[in-house]
Each structure stands twice: as structure tokens, then as C-alpha cells.
Amino acid sequence: MPRPRAHATRASSRLSERAMGSMLFLCAALSILTTVGIVLSLLGETLAFFSEVSPIEFFSGTQWTPLFQPKHFGILPLINGTVMVALGASLVAVPIGLGSAIYLSEYAPERVRNLVKPALEVLAGIPTVVYGYFALQFITPDILQRLFPEASVFNAASASIVVGIMIIPMVSSLSEDALSAVPRDLREAAYGLGATKFEVATRVVLPAALSGVFASFILALSRAIGETMAVSLAAGSTPRLTLNFLESIQTMTAYIVQVSLGDTPAGTIEFRTIFAVGTTLFAITLGMNLLSDWVIRRYREAYR
Question: What is the mean pLDDT of the chain?
């Protein structure tokens, strides 16, 4: 009698495993199909846009005025504004985030780490529109315009600062995870050779975790490129080619918001610019994510 019961138990277990495997496969397939659906929804209108506008004009033009006469469809001013905000944000987030990660990984006692890390991650839960109003009400009037009276109300510097603050938790958390994954034996060996704690952190632990740290930088930069509301409120809506962070600019995401909230009729060339800009933004962030994945695989350190 025990043998048929054991056989039935094994059969039931195999059936459950197959059902669970099928369910997990469906979850993975749903994620892939969602991405494919997003790409297809963008490509249809984007191809219709490029049937009316030359790709050469789109990617090399220096004027972006699709809503006004005469119409110009050069996306370089929007790319310029996006890159300015992303690079400015990285100047804020990378040193602060990496410094926080090194402190939490190498210096902070366990009790302090348990308090500081959740406090840092609270920044990630603040709505982005709040960051935008923070930039308008505090950073621009109380900091930037006091230091630089010529700064406009809407400017790239203010947007860069708030986006940088916003992505600090991503840099800090991912970098701290990478630093903590370095084996303790490497630290002990360095201490045994007479290295100080700072030397161990910067010359042993950080190089060993470089792939994870660098990947966190790229992912945070991708997050900054895709930021919408904070940039729309802080940077303004003036597409221009400039390197002056005190001037108003417009990013690709801010333009999408501007047109999406207006009265632009569907099917018009102005409406299709949303999809062309969105496809360009998608390609940029996809490239950043692929670069991050390559860096992780290329420079990953394996310990046994």
C-alpha cells in the first residue's frame, strides 16, 4: 500500500512543478510582450512621422518649433537639454551617492546603517512633482538667483540639482550592495598589510566592486534622462542649443508632456512628433541599459 501512495505523491509534485513552471514562463512572456507592445505602438506613428519629415532634418536640425510657424523639426535642442540635465544630475548624485555607499559599507555601525539606508531610500518615494516645486520655491530663488542674479526662473541648473537629489538613493543603494558583496577576506588581507580603512575602501573594495558601482551610475543616468515632471517644472519649455545651465531649456520628456496636455489633434504631424521623440528617448535609454549590462558582464569579479 505505501508504494502507490508514494507514486501518487510524486506525480502530484511533478504536476505542481509543471504548473509553477508554466506560470513563471507566462510572467516572463508577459514582460517581453509588454515591451514589444510598447515598441510597436511607438513605431507605427514614428514611421508615419518620418514619411513627412526627413530623418536627416530630424537628427541634425538645430531648431525645434513643430507647434509654431515656420515649423522646424530638429531634435538636437531637446537632446541637448536632456543631456545637460542628466550630466548635471550625475555631478550631484554620483559623488554623494558613492560617498554614502562607502560610508554605509565600510564605516557605519550596524545600528547607524539600519537608520541611514532607509532614510536615504525615502527620497525615492517622494513624488517627482514635489521635487519640481522644491526647485521653483527654494533652489532657484534662494540659492541660484542669490549666487547668480542672471539666472532665469526656469533653468537647467535647478532641474539638474533636484534630479540629482532624486537619483541619489539609486546610486547609493546599488553601489552599497556591490561594495558589501566584496569578500571580507580581501579587506582582512589589506588590513594585514598595514592599509588604513580609507585605503582599503578606495584601493581594494571599490576596484573589486567597480562593475556594480559603474552599472549603478549608468542606471541612475538612465533614470535622470527619463525624468519628466520635475524637469518640466524646473527647467521650463524653451528648446535651445546652449551650454548655459542658468538658461531655460526643454528636455525630450518635457516636450512630450507639453504636447500631451494640449489640444493637438490626433493624426497631425504635431501629434506624431510625440512618438518620434518618444522613440528617440526609448533608443537612448535602451542603449544605456545595454551598456550597463555589458559593463557588469565584462568587469564582474568572481570570488570563490
Answer: 86
Q: pLDDT digits over 191-204, tens only?
A: 888 888 888 888 88
Q: Are residues 143 and 18 in the same domain?
A: no
Burial 63-74 (b: 16+ CB within 10 A, else e): bbebeeeeebbb
For 245-264, how does the pLDDT look when each residue is reduced to its tens digit (9 = 90+)?
999 999 998 888 888 776 77
Comparing 55-59, 111-115, 245-249, the range with the smallest average pLDDT is 111-115
User: What pLDDT was estimated at residue 1?
Assistant: 47
Co-location of 143 and 195 in the same domain? yes
Residue-number span of the structural domain to which 127 is assigned = 76-299
Cα 251 to chain centroid, rounded: 14
Same domain, 47 and 91: no
Burial class (CB in 10 A: 0-12, 13-18, 19+), 23: exposed
First to last CA, the chain: 47
Whether 287 is in a domain gets the answer yes
* Cβ atoms 127, 196 nearer than 8 A: no
Determine the number of helices (DSSP H) and then strands (DSSP E) in the chain.
Answer: 14, 0
- 141 and 240 housed in the same domain: yes
Same domain, 204 and 290: yes
Q: Which three cell numbers stand for residue 102?
A: 562607502
- Alpha-carbon separation of residue 175 from 101, 167, 199 (angstroms): 6, 12, 18
How far is it, in rounded angstroms, from Cα 173 to Cα 230? Answer: 22
* Cell 525645434 sits on residue: 64
Do 39 and 87 belong together in one domain?
no
Cβ atoms of residues 131 and 228 within 8 Å: no
